[in-house]
Amino acid sequence: MAATACGTGSGPGGRADGRTERVTSLTALDYYTDTTEHAHWGELLTGCGEKAGVAVEHRSVPAPSLVPTALRQASAGTLPDLLMLDNPDLQQFARSGVLAPLRAYGVRTDGFGAGILSAGTYRGEVYGLAPTVNTLALFYDKRALAEAGVPVPRTWDELRKAARATTRPGRYGLAVDADASFEATFQFLPFLWSNGGDERRLDDPRAVEALGLWTGLVRDGSVSRSVLTWNQADVHEQFLGGRAAMMVNGPWRIPALDAAEDLDWGVVPLPVPRAGDALVTPLGGEVWTVPRNDSEARRRKAAEVLACLNGPASMLALADWHHTVPSRPDVAGRY
After folding, report:
1. How many helices and strands in the chain, by DSSP H and E?
2. Predicted structure pTM score
3. Domain that residue 208 falls in
4. Residue 20 pLDDT
Protein backbone atom coordinates (compact mmCIF):
# COMPACT_ATOMS: atom_id res chain seq x y z
CA MET A 1 0.00 0.00 0.00
CA ALA A 2 1.24 3.50 -0.68
CA ALA A 3 -0.03 7.02 -0.13
CA THR A 4 1.57 10.41 -0.59
CA ALA A 5 1.10 13.16 1.95
CA CYS A 6 1.06 16.54 0.27
CA GLY A 7 3.34 19.02 2.03
CA THR A 8 4.20 22.64 1.46
CA GLY A 9 7.40 24.63 1.48
CA SER A 10 10.97 23.32 1.70
CA GLY A 11 13.78 23.10 4.16
CA PRO A 12 17.38 24.23 3.80
CA GLY A 13 20.29 22.08 4.77
CA GLY A 14 24.00 21.70 4.20
CA ARG A 15 25.52 19.63 1.37
CA ALA A 16 28.93 18.11 1.06
CA ASP A 17 29.74 20.53 -1.79
CA GLY A 18 28.84 23.52 0.35
CA ARG A 19 25.63 24.38 -1.48
CA THR A 20 22.27 24.55 0.28
CA GLU A 21 20.11 21.46 -0.08
CA ARG A 22 16.37 22.06 -0.11
CA VAL A 23 14.36 19.13 1.20
CA THR A 24 10.77 19.03 -0.07
CA SER A 25 9.89 15.36 0.39
CA LEU A 26 10.67 12.38 2.62
CA THR A 27 9.93 8.66 2.51
CA ALA A 28 8.46 6.54 5.32
CA LEU A 29 8.18 2.77 5.65
CA ASP A 30 6.05 0.76 8.10
CA TYR A 31 3.93 -2.41 8.25
CA TYR A 32 0.50 -0.84 8.68
CA THR A 33 -1.11 -2.56 5.71
CA ASP A 34 -4.53 -2.69 7.37
CA THR A 35 -6.63 -0.17 5.45
CA THR A 36 -7.75 1.76 8.52
CA GLU A 37 -4.36 1.79 10.22
CA HIS A 38 -2.63 2.82 6.99
CA ALA A 39 -5.06 5.71 6.61
CA HIS A 40 -4.57 6.82 10.22
CA TRP A 41 -0.80 6.84 9.94
CA GLY A 42 -1.02 8.51 6.54
CA GLU A 43 -3.05 11.28 8.14
CA LEU A 44 -0.47 11.79 10.88
CA LEU A 45 2.44 11.72 8.46
CA THR A 46 0.63 14.22 6.26
CA GLY A 47 0.07 16.63 9.13
CA CYS A 48 3.56 16.27 10.57
CA GLY A 49 5.06 16.59 7.11
CA GLU A 50 3.19 19.82 6.53
CA LYS A 51 4.48 21.22 9.81
CA ALA A 52 8.03 20.36 8.73
CA GLY A 53 7.47 21.75 5.24
CA VAL A 54 7.81 18.46 3.37
CA ALA A 55 5.68 15.86 1.60
CA VAL A 56 5.89 12.35 3.04
CA GLU A 57 5.63 9.36 0.73
CA HIS A 58 4.13 6.66 2.95
CA ARG A 59 4.65 2.99 2.10
CA SER A 60 3.48 -0.06 4.06
CA VAL A 61 4.61 -3.66 3.60
CA PRO A 62 3.28 -6.81 5.32
CA ALA A 63 4.67 -7.24 8.84
CA PRO A 64 6.81 -10.34 8.06
CA SER A 65 8.39 -8.44 5.16
CA LEU A 66 9.39 -5.28 7.00
CA VAL A 67 12.67 -6.38 8.55
CA PRO A 68 13.89 -8.30 5.45
CA THR A 69 12.97 -5.29 3.30
CA ALA A 70 14.78 -2.86 5.60
CA LEU A 71 17.86 -5.11 5.80
CA ARG A 72 18.08 -5.24 2.01
CA GLN A 73 17.69 -1.47 1.86
CA ALA A 74 20.36 -1.01 4.52
CA SER A 75 22.75 -3.15 2.49
CA ALA A 76 22.00 -1.16 -0.66
CA GLY A 77 22.05 2.21 1.08
CA THR A 78 18.42 2.91 0.18
CA LEU A 79 16.71 3.03 3.57
CA PRO A 80 13.76 5.44 3.84
CA ASP A 81 14.03 8.71 5.71
CA LEU A 82 11.66 7.41 8.40
CA LEU A 83 11.56 3.74 9.36
CA MET A 84 9.10 2.17 11.76
CA LEU A 85 10.33 -0.93 13.61
CA ASP A 86 8.68 -3.27 16.06
CA ASN A 87 10.50 -2.44 19.29
CA PRO A 88 12.34 -5.82 19.64
CA ASP A 89 13.94 -5.22 16.23
CA LEU A 90 15.42 -1.83 17.02
CA GLN A 91 18.61 -3.04 18.66
CA GLN A 92 19.54 -5.17 15.64
CA PHE A 93 19.43 -2.08 13.42
CA ALA A 94 21.03 0.26 15.96
CA ARG A 95 23.89 -2.20 16.50
CA SER A 96 24.60 -2.24 12.77
CA GLY A 97 25.02 1.55 12.75
CA VAL A 98 22.29 2.37 10.24
CA LEU A 99 20.18 4.50 12.62
CA ALA A 100 20.81 8.06 13.74
CA PRO A 101 20.71 8.93 17.48
CA LEU A 102 17.63 11.08 17.94
CA ARG A 103 18.93 13.49 20.57
CA ALA A 104 21.66 14.59 18.14
CA TYR A 105 18.87 15.99 15.96
CA GLY A 106 17.07 17.83 18.71
CA VAL A 107 14.38 15.23 19.40
CA ARG A 108 13.28 15.49 23.02
CA THR A 109 13.04 12.19 24.85
CA ASP A 110 12.18 13.43 28.34
CA GLY A 111 8.78 12.59 29.79
CA PHE A 112 8.50 9.11 28.28
CA GLY A 113 7.90 6.14 30.54
CA ALA A 114 11.24 4.57 31.50
CA GLY A 115 10.38 1.11 30.19
CA ILE A 116 9.01 2.55 26.97
CA LEU A 117 12.09 4.69 26.39
CA SER A 118 14.37 1.72 27.03
CA ALA A 119 12.70 -0.15 24.16
CA GLY A 120 14.11 2.44 21.76
CA THR A 121 17.53 2.69 23.41
CA TYR A 122 20.78 0.96 22.53
CA ARG A 123 23.97 1.46 24.57
CA GLY A 124 22.67 4.63 26.14
CA GLU A 125 21.55 6.30 22.91
CA VAL A 126 17.89 6.70 21.96
CA TYR A 127 17.32 5.61 18.37
CA GLY A 128 13.56 5.15 18.34
CA LEU A 129 10.42 6.50 19.97
CA ALA A 130 6.98 4.93 20.23
CA PRO A 131 4.00 7.32 20.34
CA THR A 132 1.80 4.74 22.08
CA VAL A 133 2.14 1.25 23.51
CA ASN A 134 -0.12 -1.76 23.94
CA THR A 135 -0.37 -5.29 25.24
CA LEU A 136 -2.67 -8.32 24.89
CA ALA A 137 -5.97 -9.37 26.43
CA LEU A 138 -8.65 -12.04 26.13
CA PHE A 139 -11.61 -11.07 23.95
CA TYR A 140 -14.74 -13.17 24.25
CA ASP A 141 -18.17 -13.60 22.68
CA LYS A 142 -20.63 -12.88 25.49
CA ARG A 143 -23.41 -14.87 23.86
CA ALA A 144 -21.24 -17.93 23.31
CA LEU A 145 -20.10 -18.08 26.93
CA ALA A 146 -23.61 -17.46 28.24
CA GLU A 147 -25.08 -20.23 26.09
CA ALA A 148 -22.37 -22.62 27.29
CA GLY A 149 -23.05 -21.66 30.90
CA VAL A 150 -19.42 -20.86 31.72
CA PRO A 151 -17.95 -17.78 33.40
CA VAL A 152 -15.42 -15.50 31.78
CA PRO A 153 -12.12 -17.34 32.40
CA ARG A 154 -9.65 -15.86 34.84
CA THR A 155 -7.35 -18.86 35.32
CA TRP A 156 -5.89 -21.49 33.02
CA ASP A 157 -8.28 -24.17 34.30
CA GLU A 158 -11.22 -21.87 33.66
CA LEU A 159 -9.84 -21.13 30.19
CA ARG A 160 -9.65 -24.86 29.39
CA LYS A 161 -13.23 -25.39 30.58
CA ALA A 162 -14.60 -22.36 28.73
CA ALA A 163 -12.78 -23.25 25.51
CA ARG A 164 -14.06 -26.82 25.64
CA ALA A 165 -17.62 -25.78 26.50
CA THR A 166 -17.87 -23.21 23.70
CA THR A 167 -16.45 -25.47 21.00
CA ARG A 168 -19.03 -26.78 18.57
CA PRO A 169 -19.21 -27.62 14.82
CA GLY A 170 -18.02 -24.56 12.91
CA ARG A 171 -16.62 -22.81 15.97
CA TYR A 172 -13.57 -23.36 18.17
CA GLY A 173 -13.44 -22.24 21.76
CA LEU A 174 -10.26 -20.17 21.42
CA ALA A 175 -8.10 -18.66 18.69
CA VAL A 176 -4.43 -17.78 19.16
CA ASP A 177 -1.51 -16.93 16.90
CA ALA A 178 0.95 -19.84 16.84
CA ASP A 179 2.72 -19.34 13.51
CA ALA A 180 6.50 -19.05 13.19
CA SER A 181 6.63 -15.29 13.72
CA PHE A 182 7.28 -12.56 16.26
CA GLU A 183 3.52 -12.16 16.66
CA ALA A 184 3.21 -15.71 17.98
CA THR A 185 6.08 -15.08 20.39
CA PHE A 186 4.31 -11.93 21.57
CA GLN A 187 1.15 -13.98 22.22
CA PHE A 188 2.90 -16.83 24.03
CA LEU A 189 5.08 -14.70 26.33
CA PRO A 190 2.28 -13.72 28.76
CA PHE A 191 1.54 -17.40 29.40
CA LEU A 192 5.24 -18.20 29.77
CA TRP A 193 6.11 -15.23 31.99
CA SER A 194 2.99 -15.43 34.16
CA ASN A 195 3.97 -19.02 34.97
CA GLY A 196 7.46 -17.94 36.03
CA GLY A 197 9.09 -19.13 32.82
CA ASP A 198 11.97 -17.60 30.88
CA GLU A 199 12.30 -17.56 27.11
CA ARG A 200 16.00 -18.39 27.53
CA ARG A 201 15.10 -21.63 29.36
CA LEU A 202 12.41 -23.31 27.31
CA ASP A 203 13.25 -26.70 28.83
CA ASP A 204 12.33 -25.39 32.28
CA PRO A 205 9.24 -27.14 33.74
CA ARG A 206 7.40 -23.82 33.99
CA ALA A 207 7.96 -23.15 30.30
CA VAL A 208 6.92 -26.70 29.43
CA GLU A 209 3.74 -26.25 31.45
CA ALA A 210 2.88 -23.02 29.63
CA LEU A 211 3.39 -24.64 26.25
CA GLY A 212 1.37 -27.61 27.47
CA LEU A 213 -1.60 -25.31 28.00
CA TRP A 214 -1.60 -24.40 24.30
CA THR A 215 -0.86 -27.86 22.96
CA GLY A 216 -3.48 -29.38 25.24
CA LEU A 217 -6.13 -27.03 23.88
CA VAL A 218 -5.21 -28.07 20.35
CA ARG A 219 -5.23 -31.77 21.21
CA ASP A 220 -8.69 -31.68 22.77
CA GLY A 221 -10.10 -29.79 19.78
CA SER A 222 -10.76 -26.50 21.58
CA VAL A 223 -8.21 -24.74 19.38
CA SER A 224 -7.83 -25.29 15.64
CA ARG A 225 -4.66 -26.94 14.37
CA SER A 226 -4.61 -24.15 11.79
CA VAL A 227 -3.30 -21.76 14.44
CA LEU A 228 0.15 -22.88 13.27
CA THR A 229 -0.47 -20.77 10.16
CA TRP A 230 -2.48 -17.89 11.66
CA ASN A 231 -1.15 -14.44 12.42
CA GLN A 232 -2.93 -11.98 14.70
CA ALA A 233 -5.05 -10.64 11.83
CA ASP A 234 -6.21 -14.19 11.04
CA VAL A 235 -7.09 -14.74 14.70
CA HIS A 236 -9.17 -11.57 14.60
CA GLU A 237 -11.00 -12.71 11.48
CA GLN A 238 -11.83 -16.05 13.10
CA PHE A 239 -13.35 -14.32 16.11
CA LEU A 240 -15.13 -11.66 14.07
CA GLY A 241 -16.62 -14.33 11.81
CA GLY A 242 -17.99 -16.37 14.71
CA ARG A 243 -15.53 -19.21 14.19
CA ALA A 244 -13.95 -18.71 17.62
CA ALA A 245 -15.67 -17.94 20.92
CA MET A 246 -12.56 -16.29 22.41
CA MET A 247 -9.30 -14.88 21.10
CA VAL A 248 -6.01 -13.50 22.31
CA ASN A 249 -5.40 -10.14 20.65
CA GLY A 250 -4.67 -6.48 21.18
CA PRO A 251 -6.61 -3.23 21.57
CA TRP A 252 -5.98 -2.22 17.96
CA ARG A 253 -8.77 -4.67 17.07
CA ILE A 254 -11.42 -2.75 19.03
CA PRO A 255 -12.56 -0.40 16.22
CA ALA A 256 -13.39 -3.36 13.97
CA LEU A 257 -15.11 -5.19 16.82
CA ASP A 258 -17.19 -2.12 17.63
CA ALA A 259 -18.29 -1.97 14.00
CA ALA A 260 -19.52 -5.60 14.03
CA GLU A 261 -23.28 -5.30 14.45
CA ASP A 262 -24.00 -8.93 15.37
CA LEU A 263 -21.18 -9.43 17.87
CA ASP A 264 -21.65 -8.75 21.56
CA TRP A 265 -18.10 -8.94 22.84
CA GLY A 266 -16.19 -8.34 26.05
CA VAL A 267 -12.54 -8.14 27.04
CA VAL A 268 -10.65 -9.12 30.20
CA PRO A 269 -7.01 -9.59 31.25
CA LEU A 270 -5.42 -12.80 30.07
CA PRO A 271 -5.99 -15.76 32.40
CA VAL A 272 -3.23 -16.59 34.87
CA PRO A 273 -2.03 -20.07 35.87
CA ARG A 274 -3.72 -19.99 39.29
CA ALA A 275 -6.03 -17.62 41.13
CA GLY A 276 -3.96 -14.90 42.77
CA ASP A 277 -1.01 -15.20 40.36
CA ALA A 278 0.33 -11.99 38.85
CA LEU A 279 -0.24 -11.45 35.14
CA VAL A 280 2.94 -10.53 33.28
CA THR A 281 2.50 -9.25 29.72
CA PRO A 282 4.94 -7.85 27.16
CA LEU A 283 5.05 -4.20 26.17
CA GLY A 284 3.98 -3.91 22.56
CA GLY A 285 4.42 -0.96 20.27
CA GLU A 286 6.38 0.23 17.29
CA VAL A 287 9.16 2.80 17.34
CA TRP A 288 9.91 5.36 14.66
CA THR A 289 13.53 5.86 13.69
CA VAL A 290 15.67 8.06 11.44
CA PRO A 291 18.02 5.93 9.32
CA ARG A 292 21.43 7.32 8.45
CA ASN A 293 21.78 8.48 4.86
CA ASP A 294 24.14 10.77 2.99
CA SER A 295 21.99 13.87 3.57
CA GLU A 296 22.22 15.73 6.84
CA ALA A 297 19.35 17.96 5.77
CA ARG A 298 17.06 14.99 5.13
CA ARG A 299 17.90 13.52 8.53
CA ARG A 300 17.06 16.79 10.23
CA LYS A 301 13.73 17.04 8.43
CA ALA A 302 12.95 13.41 9.24
CA ALA A 303 13.71 14.11 12.90
CA GLU A 304 11.23 17.00 12.84
CA VAL A 305 8.52 14.70 11.52
CA LEU A 306 9.43 12.00 14.06
CA ALA A 307 9.21 14.51 16.91
CA CYS A 308 5.76 15.53 15.71
CA LEU A 309 4.63 11.88 15.50
CA ASN A 310 5.65 11.53 19.15
CA GLY A 311 4.05 14.76 20.28
CA PRO A 312 1.00 14.92 22.58
CA ALA A 313 -1.49 15.56 19.78
CA SER A 314 -0.33 12.54 17.80
CA MET A 315 -0.25 10.35 20.89
CA LEU A 316 -3.83 11.26 21.78
CA ALA A 317 -5.06 10.75 18.21
CA LEU A 318 -3.48 7.28 18.04
CA ALA A 319 -4.77 6.34 21.47
CA ASP A 320 -8.27 7.35 20.42
CA TRP A 321 -8.09 5.53 17.09
CA HIS A 322 -6.43 2.31 18.26
CA HIS A 323 -7.26 2.19 22.01
CA THR A 324 -3.57 2.19 22.88
CA VAL A 325 -1.80 4.07 25.70
CA PRO A 326 0.25 7.26 25.16
CA SER A 327 3.92 6.70 25.93
CA ARG A 328 4.21 9.78 28.11
CA PRO A 329 2.48 9.43 31.49
CA ASP A 330 1.41 13.09 31.49
CA VAL A 331 -0.32 12.61 28.14
CA ALA A 332 -1.78 9.26 29.17
CA GLY A 333 -3.37 11.05 32.12
CA ARG A 334 -5.34 13.18 29.66
CA TYR A 335 -6.59 10.20 27.64
Report:
1. 13, 16
2. 0.81
3. 137-268
4. 67
